[in-house]
Amino acid sequence: MIRAPIRMLASAAGLMAQGVLAATLHVQVHDPEGHPVANAAVYAVPDRPVDREATPKAIIDQVNRRFVPRILVIQAGTSVSFPNSDNIRHSVYSFSPPKIFTLKLYSGVPASPVVFDKAGIVVLGCNIHDSMVAWVLVVDTPFFTHTDGSGAAALANLPPGRYTLRAWSNSMRQEAPGEPLDVSAEPLPVRTLEVPPEAPDPPDSMSMNAQMEGMVH
Amino acid sequence: MRFDSLRVRLVLFLVALLGVVQITAFVLINAAATSAARAKIDDELSVGERVFALELRQGAERQLQAATVLASDFAFREAVTTGDVPTLASALQNHGARIRAAALFLVDLDGKIVADSLPASMHQSYDFASLLAAARATGDSTSIMMIGDHALQLIAAPVRAPIPVGWIIVGFALNESVAQELRALTGLNVSFAFEAAGSWRLLASTLPAPQVRALQERLPAYDGAVQLHELAMPGGEHQVRLVPIGGIAGRHVVAVLQRPVADAMAGFATLRMTLLGLGVVSVALSIAGSVLIALGITRPLRLLLDAVRRIRQGDYAAPVDVHRRDEIGVLAQGLDHMRAGIAEREQRILRLAYEDVLTLLPNRVQFADQLARRIAQSREQSQHFAVLVMDLDRFKEINDSLGHGVGDHVLCEVATRLHGMLGGADAVARLGGDEFAVLVGAGRAGRATEVAAAIAAVLEAPILYEGQPLDVGASIGIAQFPEHGADAEVLMRNADIAMYVAKRSRSGLAVYDASYDTNQQEHLSLLGELRRAVERNELQLVYQPKVTLATAHTGAVEALLRWQHPTRGMVPPVQFIPFAEHTGYIKALTRWVLAEAIRQCGAWRREGIDLRIAVNLSARDLMHRELPEYIEGLLQQHAVPAQRIGLEITESGFMEDPVHAQRVLERLSAMGLQLSVDDYGTGYSSLSYLMKLPVDELKIDRSFVSNLSDDSSLQTIVRSTIELGHGLGLKVVAEGIEDARTYALLRELRCDSAQGYYMSPPLAPDALRAWLQGGQMPRDLRPPPTEQLQSRQQLSLAAPLSRV
C-alpha cells in the first residue's frame, strides 16, 4: 500500500520531466444512432503501467435517495466515501465482483471509506431503496474523464506513448476492448467513440407516493 | 255422451281451443326458456371466461410479486452473486416451498438456466426465450408451459443487483385445486386441457371422472381462438367454452369452461311445472265452464224437447216452463203459444169429432166411447143397461119433400125433446141421419121399455114448422147388456136389428130377440143373392084370388112375390123385402113385379081370362116420380088397360111422405089404375087424410078378420069400417079369411070382396087357371079342407110380417 504512492510520484515526476511533450486528446462520444452520449467515461490505459502517484479520494453522496454522482470513474485504489445527506438511512451495497461490500444502514458519514482496488465495473445499490443505482468504473489509469452534455470530453496531459483508448456508458456490462492511441509530439486529432446510450435510473419507488398524491388531487 | 250433441261439441271445441293455446304457449315459452337458458349459459361462460382470465392474471401477479420478492431478497441476491449452483438450487427449493410454487428457475440474462428447483431427473434446458422477451418488454409476463407432465404457469421476475443480473422464473401448476378455486369463483366447471398431436389430454378438471373421459374424447380440434361448443356429456348436454391460456410450439393449452344446459333449465323446470299445472287447471276450469254454459243452453233445450214431446203425446195442459230473456226464451214462448193454439184447436176438433154439429148431441164416435165405458163399468159392477137405437119414421120423406131445412129443424126438435126428457144415467146421441141412440142406465128389467115408450110419447106431439104440424114417429130397437151382447159392436148391431124389426112391424118398439139375429144374418147373405135372383129368374109371382062375396065370382087377384132359391128353397118375403127396401133394391124388385104382373095380365087376357091384378107397392116406390111413366109403358107394351091393374099401398106407405105420395098417387089414379089401402086399421092414419087421396078400395087388415067370428067387438069394428068405406064410396076387401063362418059373416056384413086360404092360397099362374076353370066352390057351404087349414096355420105364423 505504501509503495504505490511512491510509484505514482515517480511516474509523475517522469511525466513532469517530459512536460513539454504532454498532449491533450479531444474525444467525441456518440451512440450507434449518432446521438452524443453524456456521462460516458472516456479513458486511456497506457501500455506500460504507470505508478500511482497517490491514493486519490472520491465521494459518492446520497441526496434525495439518489447517488450523486450516479456515475463515477476512478483510478483503481481510490477510496470512495459515501456520506449520507438524506435524513433517512441508506444501506449501500455492491455485488459486483471487482468490489463486493455492504455498508449497513447508516446516516451521516460512515466511519471509513471504501477503497476500490480492482479495475472493473461496480454497480452500487441501496438495500432498502431499489431505485438508487450508481456505477463506479474503476480503471487502471490516471487518464480518464467523462463526456459533457454534448458528448465531448478531453484527456489532457497525456504523455507520449501508446495507450488503449476506451469509452464506457453505464448500460455496458463490460468494458469495451478499446482502440489504440499513440501520443507523440504532434497534435492529436479528435477521436470519435461509440457507446450505447446512457441507462436511465430505475424508477423511484417514492414516485408511487407522487402517483397517489396525484390521484388524490 | 253422444258426440253429435250440442253440449259435447261445445265442450270439445272450447277444450281443444284452450289446449291448442296452452300447448302453443307452452312450446313457445319452452323454446324461449331454452334459448334464454342457452344465452344465460353463454353469458355465464363469457363472464366465467373474463373472471377466469382476470383470476389467472391476478394469480400471475400475485405469483410475480412472490417471485419479485424472492428476486429482491438480499440474501438470495447474495447467493446469486456467489454463483454456487447447489446453494442456489436449495435456495430455489426453499423459496418454492414458501410460495407454493411447483418449480423455480434462476436464469441468466440470456435465458440460460443457472439453477432450478426441479429434481435432477427433470434437469434440462427449457426455452424461456419468448417468456423473457415478453417480460423484458412489459415488465411482467406469464406463460403456460408443459414442464414434464404438468402445465405450469410461468412468471418471470428480474433479479436486480440493483441492475438486472438474471431472472427468477416461478412456475405454478394448473392443477385440481386451481381448477376448484376457479370453479368456486365462476360457478363453472373448469378443466385444463392440453392438445398434443390432435388429441386432447386433460390436465386437471372439476368434472367427475366419467365426464372427464367424455370431455377428453369429445373436445373438438382447436385453432387457438376462443371457441364455443355444445357437447353431449353423460347426464346431458353441456355448453363449453375453450379459452386459450398458453401454448408451446403450436400445442395448445386451454381452459375448458362448461356448464350443463340442464342447470340453467332448472329454474325453468318449476316454471314448466307451474305452466303444466296452470294448463291442467285451466283446461279443467274450461271444461267445467263450458259444461255449465252448455248446460245453460242444452238444459232449456231439453226442457223444450220435453215440452215438444208432451205436445206430441197430446198433453197440452203443462205450459212450456222456460223463462229466459235470450233466444231460447223467445223460442219457448213461441212454443207455448203453439201449444195453447194446438190445445184450443184440438178442443175444437174434439168437439167436432165427438159432437153432432147440428143437434149438439154427442155423435156416433162419442156414443161409442160412452158405450165402451159403460160396458167396462157394468162388467165390473155386474150391472145391466140397455142400448136404444131409434130411427125416425117418415123423416126421409119430410127431408126430400120439404127440404133439408125442415129436416134439420125436425132433427133439432127431436134432439131437444130427447135431451129434455132424458137425464141422469141416460145419454142420448145422434148416430147420423135420422138415427138416434140412447144409453139407458141400470135399473129394473123393464126400464128400457119404459124409456122407449116415454120417447115415443114425447115424439107423439107434432113438430111445428112455420105453424105447420109435422107428424114424426120413431121406431126403437132395444138391446140389453149383457144378455143381448157383451161388446159394443154386438149390442149396437142387435139394437139396430131390433129397431128394424120395430119399424117393419110398425110396433114402434122391439126388444132384440135372438131369432131376429138369424134372420138378419141370412138377410145379409141373401141380399147379394137377391140381385142375382132377378137375373137368374129365381123370382116368381103367385096369385091369390079376391072373391066377390056377392057373386062368389073371382074378378081380381093379388100378385105375391116368391123366391125359389136354388139351395135354400122357398125364401119367405119377410127375409128379403125389408132389406130390399133398405138398400133401395126394392125399386128393382117392384119393377120386376110390375113387369111380370102386367105381362101375366096381358097373357091371361089373350087367353080370355080377365082378371084385375093387384101389385103391392112399398112406400119407397112412391118416392119415384117416374113410376107412373114406367107403368104406362108396361101397360102399352102388354096391351093391358090401366083398369086391370091395381096397386096396394099400406097405410104407412101413404103416410110416410103424404105430400109427395099424394102427387104420385093422383097421377096413377088419373091413369085409371085401381088404388087400395092395404092393411087398413094397423096404422095411425086419419081417415079424413085418406079421403083426400084418390083411393078406390080399403083392405081390412087380417088381424081384424082372423078372429072375427069369435069376437063381437071386432065384428063391430069391421062392420063400421065397411059401412064407413061404403059411405065414402070405397070398396072394402077383407083378407085372411080362413073359414066358412068368417066368409059368411063378411058377406053378411056386406063386405065387397074377400081373400084368404079359405078360398084359395096364392097360386102359380097355371094352378090359378085350373082353379078358375075347376069352378068356384060355394064358399058359404063348403068347409075348407083339413090339410089346407094346416098349411094356412103354418103360413099365418109369418103373416103379421108378410105384408107383401
Q: What can you see in these coordinates?
A:
The complex is a heterodimer of chains A (217) and B (804). Chain A folds into two domains: 1-45 and 145-217, Carboxypeptidase-like, regulatory domain (Immunoglobulin-like, Sandwich), CATH 2.60.40; 54-141, Sandwich (Immunoglobulin-like). In chain A, the strands form five sheets. A five-stranded mixed β-sheet of chain A has the order 6-12-11-8-9, with no helix packed on it. A four-stranded antiparallel β-sheet of chain A has the order 13-2-15-16, with no helix packed on it. A three-stranded mixed β-sheet of chain A has the order 14-1-17, with no helix packed on it. Mean pLDDT of chain A is 81; it is low at 1-19 and 206-217. Chain A has 217 residues and is mostly beta strands. Chain A is 12% helix and 39% strand. Chain A contains two helices and 17 strands. Chain B is an alpha+beta fold. In chain B, helix 23 links the parallel strand 25 and strand 26. The two termini of chain B are 80 Å apart. Chain B has four domains: 41-261, PAS domain (Beta-Lactamase, 2-Layer Sandwich); 314-353, no CATH class; 355-512, Alpha-Beta Plaits; 521-795, EAL domain (TIM Barrel). Helix content of chain B is 52%, strand content 22%. Mean pLDDT of chain B is 82; it is low at 778-804. Chain B is built from 25 helices and 26 strands. Chain B has an eight-stranded mixed barrel, surrounded by six helices. In chain B, strands 2-1-5-4-3 form a five-stranded antiparallel β-sheet. Chain B has a five-stranded antiparallel β-sheet with strand order 7-6-10-9-8. In chain B, helix 7 packs parallel to helix 8. The interface between A and B is medium-sized, with 15 and 11 residues.
